[in-house]
Structure formats: structure tokens, C-alpha cells
Amino acid sequence: MGFKDIFKKGFLTSYANTEITFRYAVLAMLICLAISLVICAVYYFKSRKYFFSKEFAVSLVALSVITVSVILTIQASVVVSLGMVGALSIVRFRTAIKNPLDLVFLFWSIATGIICGAGLYFIALPLTLILGIAILLSDEVPGVSRNRILVLDGSYPYDEGQAMGIVRKYAKWYNVRTESVHNDAVNLIIEVRKVKDSQALIRELRQTGVFHDVSLLVQEGTID
Q1: Domains of the chain, CATH where assigned
Q2: Is residue 188 a contact partner of residue 176, using CB atoms and an 8 Å limit?
Q3: Among 103, 134, 136, 214, which is 20 to 30 Å from 46 by CA?
């Protein structure tokens, strides 16, 4: 028997197949499913005011369950695990992720599947609790909440006190970024934060009869 055969036999003996029972696999998948539903709920409450994707939320749940299945399979057989690594290496993801927070949810979902597949539930549960609370409370931290951009197009001159009074009524904080006047038309770009009722804000600004075009956009990055 050569060195190659001894090494191969020792390797396979050291990483002998781990017996994964049906009950253990189902329990791991159910716990992972419950935690992934919490992740989905956190994503819903975080993104419902801006852009909530039902497909992305379903993907978070499915990704966790698929990952825990892969980890259980790897534990069951080292030979299958090596083949699975080769099979997964040919997968290419070409979908662009524009929001960095979506990457956090994706990695959170994958990590949950890995942790549950390893049976370390005492890590997955506090991770979900701590990270979920941190993400939900991030909007309450000064300077962290996502700002929005209010764009007003109307006729000039206009009652500035009336317009700013309406903005102040619905936004906790605002700042006029630009005010441009051309002939009898005015364009205002206002940065607002924590708008409590965006539809009422737009409706009341249009009811003044001055602004014929009112847009409320989500700000990505900073404005200089």
C-alpha cells in the first residue's frame, strides 16, 4: 500500500459519515424556517415604507432552508460534500443588488442556514434577536434614518411660509437644498426626514394651487 492509498484511507476514516436521522433533519429545517420567517418580518417592517419586494422576502426564507439542507448533506457524507462544492462552483449570480441592506439580509439568511445546519441553535436565536432589534431601531438613531427628497414645481411668486408650514406639519425635519426660479416658474428641492403621511403631504401641497407637480423620492446616498 503506497502513501497515496494510506492518505486517502486516513482522510476518509477521519471524516467518517455522520448519521443524520430524519427527525434531526426535520427539526433543523423547522427551526431554520421559524428563524427565517422572523428575518422576513424584519425585512418587511424595514422596507415597507420604501420598497418591499415580495419575491425577495420569499427568497430569504427559501435560501435559509436550502442552506440548512446543504449543510446537513455535507455533514452526512464527505464525498457528497466535495461533489457539491464542485457543483455549486459553476453557479453564477448576475442579479445586481442596489441596496446594501439587502446584502445584509441575504447574508443573514445564509448564515442562519449554516448555523442551524450545524445544530448551533444557541447562536442562531440570539443573533436573530440582536440583529433584528438593531435593524428595526436603526431609523431612530440620529443621522442613520433614510432621508427623502421632496421636489416641487409650481408658479412664482409663491407663499413660502405656507409651503414650509405644510412641510413642517408632516416632516419631523426638513432642509431646502435648492430653489431655482425661471420666468414665472419655481423649482424647490427639499430634503425631509421621517414623513409621517406622505400622501397627505403631497395632497395638501397640490391643494394650494401653486405647485402643479409634487414628487417625493427616496434619497440614496448624500446630497452636496
Answers
A1: 16-140 (no CATH), 148-218 (3.30.70.260)
A2: yes
A3: 214
